[in-house]
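Structure ticket #2291
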Amino acid sequence: MITEKEHTRTHIRNTTAKLIAELGFSGVKTKKIAEACQVSDGLIFKYFKSLDGLFTEVCEHCVKQFTNFAIDANMSSNQEMLQAFTFAFFEHNLNQPESFLIYMRSVYERKDLLEKIPAHTYNSGLMQEIEFRFVSKYGEVDGLLLFRAFRNMLYQEIFNTLLEKNDSPFATKHASYRLSLLFFPE
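Resolution: structure written out below.
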């Protein structure tokens, strides 16, 4: 059973997440969080040592959500693997756009917060598998460059899909198929 204290802390964190997704980190101040939560400024600091501490917890929570999906990693074809990964990544993050947006805002606005998050928080196994397949096919230098290009294009595709509010299964499948063919043509 969730205690009142846990409920309040979660409410503050989730409300802050919504504000960050909407306004960015620089647009979120303690007063704005308190107003949105309908609590006093002081209560926020009862639960979080600082605004950065709250932001870090928001980022950690979002990273967990952002990377919490799975696929069958035992596919023999690189193209199949990339397509399944991309599709699962799209589906997962289009259903939780707030987590994706906060993660991306963290990357561009407050990378220092991401550095505070323990490495085990990230579901990096899948990304490492994809990276390994790129390196195996294209060699170390080219493989890493192409992997980073793929990752950036994947994030851009999700951004575009969110902006267009086009979350149809066809659009998702088409984008995942297009990206997999681009990097691992048959």
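Closing remark: The mean pLDDT is 81.
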